[in-house]
Design a protein that fits this description.
The complex is a heterodimer.
Chain A (H helix, E strand, L loop, with lengths): L8 H4 L5 H5 L3 E5 L11 E7 L2 E8 L7 H6 L3 H8 L7 H16 L7 H29 L3 H22 L8 E2 L2 E2 L7 H23 L3 H7 L7 H6 L5 H4 L7 H4 L20 H28 L17 H4 L3 H12 L7 E9 L2 E9 L5 E7 L1 H6 L2 H5 L4 H11 L3 H5 L1
Antiparallel strand pairs in A: 1-2, 2-3, 4-5, 6-7, 7-8
Helix pairs in contact in A: 4-5, 5-6, 6-7, 6-13, 6-18, 7-8, 8-13, 13-18
Chain B lengths: L2 H14 L2 E5 L2 E5 L5 H12 L3 E9 L8 E9 L4 E9 L5 E3 L8 H12 L2 E3 L35 H7 L6
Parallel strand pairs in B: 2-5, 6-7
Antiparallel strand pairs in B: 1-2, 3-4, 4-5
Chain lengths: 414, 170
Amino acid sequence: MLQQMEITVDELRHLFTERARAGETMILNMGPQHPSTHGVLRLMLELDGEVVVNCVPDIGFLHTGVEKNMEAKNYIKAAVMVDRLDYLNTMGNNLVYALAVEKLVGIQDQIPERALVIRTILVELQRIASHLVWLGTHALDLAAMSVFLYCFRERELILEIFELVSGQRMMTTYIRPGGLWRDVPEDFYDAVKQFIDYFPRRIDQYEALLTDNPLFKQRTVGIGVLKKEDAIRWGATGPVLRGSGIKYDIRKARPYLIYDALDFDIPVREEGDVYARYLVRMEEMRQSLKIVRQALEWLKKTEGQPVRTPNRKFVPPPKSELAHSMEAVIHHFKYWTEGFKAPKGAVYVAVESPRGELGVYLEGNGGPKPHRVHFRTPSFANLQLLPLLAKGHMVADLVAIIGSIDIVLGDVDR
Amino acid sequence: MEQYLELVVNDLRERFQVEVETFRDEVSVFVRPEQIVEVCQTLRDEYNFDFLADLTAVDYWPQQEPRFHVVYQLYSYLHNVSLRLRVPVQGETPSLPTVEGVYPNANWYEREVWDMFGIHFDGHSDLRRILMPFDWVGHPLRKDYPLGYEEPQYTFNFHDIERKKRRPRE
């Protein structure tokens, strides 16, 4: 029969305290199929009564080998795999990959303004959508069920906008190396406008349900405190870092797209607890709306401009040329079968995803396929903090802490 | 190259005799394995590179020797510059010292590199596989590791395939 590989207790002994061996504390398994671990995260908990003495995360249940698979595909075909990493931030994943490829082949200055504006609008909408899922599930973990329903209602509006531009609700692959798949349809402006006019009232509604709610505050204030020094030492990024009082956001520090021309703030809280991270994300949604509002006006000014680089080497020919130009047909065929070649060298590009620094290390070897792609995913980096944050708290608080780190297991395991 | 970065790189050149490469305005410093902890310590304590953004490896089999490069991506909040360290490591089962003592978050990154490339980090506190199952054979991101083509295991051929599988510790 199925011979189990014996992993002996001795090999895991160093993870737990001596008290576990003496039987004073209990080792409990949580997950991987557990609703409040937000996916397939498994935790080995050492408990003293109901207090967490030690917490050992076990990840890899959703490992799909995206990095290995991308090495076997050319740059253009590998783009579709990127969406599947962090399935709540598909536009952001597309963006960071597109930026990395553009930097590697050296066309980062040739992307038309309109493409940059549309990219900005879409990734900021994606940030709101991702925060809505976080807010809904986080509140659900803390027994506030109605918030979950409201959040998913509003998220659907954003996904409908994505469907409008790309034909897909989630796995869009709309942002591509060299620009966009195509220009946005005519009713895009109205759809986004309608959403940003409607949404501020909704944020107020969520805040009315949670921010001053004594039950919610009891579960979050002072729980899972991350000190400033620890946040830096352990390489936390995103709202987790900003919730601990460090004003660092890649959109401000190393601006990409059109962020340096836009007016927005980076919310920071000093407390470093679950509640602080909640407040940071709520404010971030408002700031994202502010960004979208400005970018939408900008979009109007760029009406009629191209959304792809004029450098034909890196983008397919327009559909209209295919009917009467033999060169366009050849180009189209070569582009989709062989792809384009990238020089030997490595680049690292990072963007601010809803969860933190999403970086991609991309190395070319002179051929049409990447030699190495590595994703520095924010969930993976932030999840490392969990044992540190969970120590000394109750099991019920652990659920709140996991929610506040905002992990997506597709992002952790890749 | 930014002014501050140039200062850092020049100092590293003097103290550690490193080579420096620039591609698309990104600076890579080639460091020998035995120096890596000291270099990281210097960069963190003297030059404010507080943040280890990324740690990964690249396999150059079969074209290049040494086969693996371990890549460290550092960032300084204070000066807003980033710097990449590349450590070429020798052999089929290479090893280099861990930087966990300098950057605690290297813990999981190094486990991932061990899991995916089989590069051993000496002195690491908990070097187990992280993404692959604990009884997995091989290191998937090596270039000589095949991509896919595994026979699916159904009820009718379960035992046949089970027998054919390679097992560690046998």
